[in-house]
Design brief:
heterodimer; A: alpha+beta; 4-stranded antiparallel sheet; two-stranded antiparallel ribbon; 3 helices; B: 4-stranded antiparallel sheet
Chain lengths: ~130, ~130
């Protein structure tokens, strides 16, 4: 990933083009419950020891674990929001565009409910 | 497309994720002369008086003249991306432009075949960039 201003490259920058959902307004509690339901456990593996899902701190940490459980990517930060989905360049060679979208939409709606809005999201930021 | 630094949005910025290739401007220009029709070549590379345009001058509009015409030759959804002065250009289709009925392999083959037909045996892959001004 390159960020350019003329020829300037900035390694702290990032961008994504995903099919997925903006989960900024879903709420930490809802994501924690989804994570428990998906894993069937009250804990997740930390670097050194298991962590209680209820003790996870903040949307970013919860989102990363939830994405991992869903087999999706997690992007974002507290400034511009959080996104769960899958990068468009990850579509399988044998998978159609419709199958790719259906797979992600099904995963997100199963975890977070039918109200979650799923679409293509493109964001970039530098800092 | 939004570029953000915190909440700062910059409408002059853009980003892309494409499947395609990267070519130097000189390679694109050389190939263009074998792809475009005589009328298009006249329009792109010659001024109103019939004099050949200096490709290093501001009179030669690489993106809005040559790029646009080449994109139309390359096929549906294939465009030029990036672009700074003497740099080359990415050429390909947005990764989000998969058709519902098209597999990943078919998408790559469609884009790859079009690019190879136009530019020869080019290297293909996904490319992602953010550009801000």
């Amino acid at each position: 990933m390159k960020i350019r201003s003329g020829f300037v490259s900035n390694s702290s920058s990032s961008s994504f083009l995903i099919y997925g959902a903006n989960v900024s307004d879903v709420g930490d509690d809802t994501m924690k419950e989804a994570l428990k339901k998906l894993t069937g456990k009250d804990t997740v593996k930390g670097y050194r020891e298991d962590i209680k899902i209820d003790d996870l701190d903040g949307s970013y940490e919860i989102g990363e674990y939830l994405a991992d459980a869903l087999g999706l990517d997690f992007h974002g930060n507290s400034d511009y929001g959080y996104y769960l989905g899958s990068s468009w360049d990850s579509i399988g060679d044998d998978e159609t565009g419709k199958q790719f979208k259906t797979r992600i939409e099904t995963a997100l709606k199963t975890a977070l409910g039918d109200d979650v809005s799923v679409a293509t999201h493109e964001e970039a930021w530098y800092g | 497309m939004k570029i953000r630094n915190g909440f700062v949005s910059n409408s002059s910025s853009s980003s892309f994720m494409i499947y395609g290739t990267y070519l130097d401007k000189s390679e694109i220009i050389a190939k263009a002369k074998s792809i475009l029709t005589p009328e298009q070549i006249q329009e792109v590379f010659f001024d109103e008086d019939g004099n050949e345009i200096d490709l290093d001058s501001y009179d030669f509009d690489f993106d809005y003249s040559l790029g646009d015409k080449l994109s139309k030759k390359l096929g549906e959804g294939i465009y030029f991306y990036g672009g700074y002065e003497d740099e080359g250009r990415y050429i390909g289709a947005s990764a989000s432009s998969f058709k519902d009925e098209e597999t990943g392999a078919q998408f790559k083959a469609r884009v790859g075949d079009a690019l190879k037909l136009a530019f020869g045996n080019v290297s293909l892959g996904f490319h992602s960039e953010v550009v801000y001004n």
